Amino acid sequence: MPVKETRSFREVCRENGIAVTHQRQVLYEVMKSMDGHPSPEEVYARVKKKVPAISLATVYKNIHLFIESGVFQKVSMHHGSVRVEMNGEPHHHMVCSKCRKITDIGEKELGLVAKRSRLPGGFLVERYAVDAIGVCASCQKSSC
Amino acid sequence: MPVKETRSFREVCRENGIAVTHQRQVLYEVMKSMDGHPSPEEVYARVKKKVPAISLATVYKNIHLFIESGVFQKVSMHHGSVRVEMNGEPHHHMVCSKCRKITDIGEKELGLVAKRSRLPGGFLVERYAVDAIGVCASCQKSSC
DNA sequence: AGCATAAACGATAAAAGTTATCGTTTGAGA
DNA sequence: TCTCAAACGATAACTTTTATCGTTTATGCT
Ligand SMILES: [Mn+2]
Ligand SMILES: [Mn+2]
Ligand SMILES: [Zn+2]
Ligand SMILES: [Zn+2]
Q: Is A130 within 8 Å of chain B by CB?
């Protein structure tokens, strides 16, 4: 069973043209075993137990690599510096995955339906925030 | 017309029990005039043209104050450090506004949105990311 | 298996974003 | 006008992320 896991990781690397290093492999397996939505520091703390000499920079570099390769994803497009919303009207956002531009869009234009105020686990909903993630018109034209 | 604006800002301050300082007032008016979703640094650059001696710390402190008072909002709950998603199944998130915990929820349990792949302005949608923002069961019990 | 080379690694400095500290200034109520 | 808590500016400190660079390692080719 570790054999199968190893083979599948090797295939992932082969597909994406990246080398199979010891650090990379342990990182991949540790991350796969983690629940929730850890930060790079949390991943670093975990993987350090198995590879004590690993560098935080290596963790960051490989998390980026995994995300670029589609092996894992980012929880949100909105990490980094805080952004302020001055538009008091309830609305949602279109987020361009190329240029990261955030554009307002009303609920009606979005075609949004069905709003539950209670969700499984007893979660009480105050509001919904929807991101339509894709490519803006300007980035579709320019082939960058 | 500047008189009316001033009065409304004074009322906002009165309602929230905060002092009407010169910096605060200019900051409020500059921010209200800004489109999009600026970062604190962008706000700072703008307000500095009108109050050159203002400190970046003052900008940060007042942005927080405005957000806490509900005058303005944050674009997203997900600023700060990047979080990695290892759950490959398509899903959305419940985000607790008290403890900030992020919990997975499937599309079916959520009640979901309509799926338009084209949005106004020629935006091409790749996927939707929905945050149900509210209070988790644990934070409902504890009255903190 | 041995070799060459590009990629990856670890250590750490630097950059970016944010918060804390502290002495000085100012707004609000008496 | 006077008093004092609140707010301000300057800047140090902290957090998160990226860049740099010398060393090590994986890979493809004999
Ligand atoms: Mn908006
Ligand atoms: Mn998730
Ligand atoms: Zn774009
Ligand atoms: Zn909570």
A: yes
